[in-house]
Design goal:
The longest helix has 25 residues, at about 30-55. A hairpin with a 5-residue loop joins β12 (about 355-360) and β13 (about 365-375). The chain has helices at about 1-10, 15-25, 30-55, 85-90, 135-155, 190-210, 225-245, 285-300, 300-305, 340-345, and strands at about 60-65, 70-75, 110-115, 160-165, 215-220, 245-250, 255-260, 265-270, 310-315, 320, 330-335, 355-360, 365-375. The protein is an alpha/beta fold. The chain folds into 2 domains: about 1-75, no CATH class; about 85-375, Metallo-dependent phosphatases (Purple Acid Phosphatase, chain A, domain 2), CATH 3.60.21.10. The two termini are about 40 Å apart. It is built from 10 helices and 13 strands.
């Protein structure tokens, strides 16, 4: 029973949830279980404190002995990721830094939005998941190519904005960015880094030849990848800076950021941050969220910068475009690029995955929106 309590507490369950689950599983009284839960929770806090004092990553602890207020800890050291070597392997040839092109003046621009790619996620659990799907590098590259080809077939402008709304990487060391929440993974850290970086470079390679100018916005403040996602996007930016003279990469570290094109402002956010928000922005607006967004828009002076404002978010894995709830801004949720995780499959539905293409008039409210879903949805 103690092992089960320890497991549930480390997974992030509340004391009430642990008591209820263990009581249902064992048939023992909740009062008795609550005593053990509180005792183990205090012990885990003491273990975390000792790990911090000794410089041991708490998530690397395999097992421990606890006796007379002392711990004996067995931990696996985290393997260092040689990012420099991976980048050098990709940049096999030396690129001379090119002078960047100027952003051309256009009346209409294209926009491509995707989110929640979750590179490294194991959505199959070795074929045992309800909707087992092998979400590995091969399938990711296929979808990247499909997205690029669809974008080019719909091309209407010489200027393209690409927005990645976060959770690009699924986790690091099999954990979310906040720790305490284990994730089923099918790649090592190195493999996930390599795969995620190559996928973005592949996308730019396919699109940069056909567009005069591309701006790539990456949301790097989210609840799954955060610092690991920033590391991948930082490498991506450094490579693009020396390889392409018509590609600009902007990595956004704030929970909510924005950019303006003509009379349009796009507020981009994952919807849940890397440390504080237990519950992120909901897929459907409520009064509390309208107030929070309105205060942000006022504080950033966005109402003065643009006539037409769109709040663009990921996280919910749903494709919902709300143009009516607020008179001041549109509120858009975008579909996940990856298949649903096993957790989503079991708690909700299989879901649909894809991306969204837009064609936008720079100085009018006209906006064409084309959600695209992969065929296996």
């Amino acid at each position: 029973m103690q092992k089960r309590i320890d497991e549930l507490l480390l997974s992030g369950k509340s004391i009430a949830d642990v008591v209820r689950i263990v009581s249902n599983e064992t048939g023992k009284s909740k009062q008795n279980i609550r005593y053990h839960v509180n005792k183990i929770k205090d012990r885990n806090k003491a273990l975390r404190d000792e790990c911090e004092e000794k410089g041991i990553d708490f998530n690397s602890v395999n097992y421990y002995w606890y006796k007379s207020e002392k711990f004996s800890i067995n931990a696996t050291p985290n393997e260092a990721v040689d990012y420099e070597k991976i980048i050098n392997d990709i940049l096999e040839q030396k690129y001379q830094k090119l002078e960047k092109k100027q952003l051309p003046e256009v009346e209409t621009f294209d926009r491509l939005v995707f989110t929640d790619t979750h590179v490294g996620m194991d959505a199959s659990r070795k074929g045992l998941a309800m909707y087992a799907e092998e979400w590995g590098g091969e399938m990711l590259f296929q979808r990247i190519e499909e997205m690029a080809n669809k974008m080019l077939s719909c091309k209407r402008s010489s200027v393209l904005y690409i927005d990645d709304l976060g959770d690009y990487m699924d986790g690091f060391n099999g954990m979310t960015t906040r720790g305490g929440h284990k994730l089923p993974q099918n790649m090592t850290n190195e493999e996930a880094f390599d795969t995620g970086l190559k996928a973005k470079l592949m996308l730019v390679d396919l699109l940069s030849k056909e567009y005069e100018y591309i701006t790539f916005n990456n949301v790097c403040n989210d609840n799954h990848s955060a610092a690991f996602g920033y590391t991948v996007n930082s490498a991506f930016k450094q490579i693009c800076d020396v390889k392409y003279n018509n590609v600009e990469v902007v990595n956004h570290l704030k929970f909510m950021s924005h950019y303006v094109v003509g009379d349009h402002a796009f507020v981009i956010t994952h919807g849940k941050d890397d440390r504080h928000m237990k519950y992120g922005f909901k897929p459907i607006l409520d009064a509390k969220q309208v107030y929070k967004i309105d205060q942000f828009l006022k504080n950033e002076g966005i109402y003065r910068e643009a006539k037409y404002i769109e709040i663009s978010k990921g996280d919910s894995h749903q494709c919902l475009f709300d143009m009516c709830t607020s008179d001041d801004f549109h509120y858009f949720n975008f579909a996940a690029f990856s298949p649903s995780s096993e957790w989503v499959q079991l708690n909700f539905t299989k879901g649909r995955s894809g991306f969204t293409i837009m064609h936008i008039d720079k100085y009018t409210p006209n906006k064409s929106i084309f959600p695209y879903f992969f065929n296996n949805n």
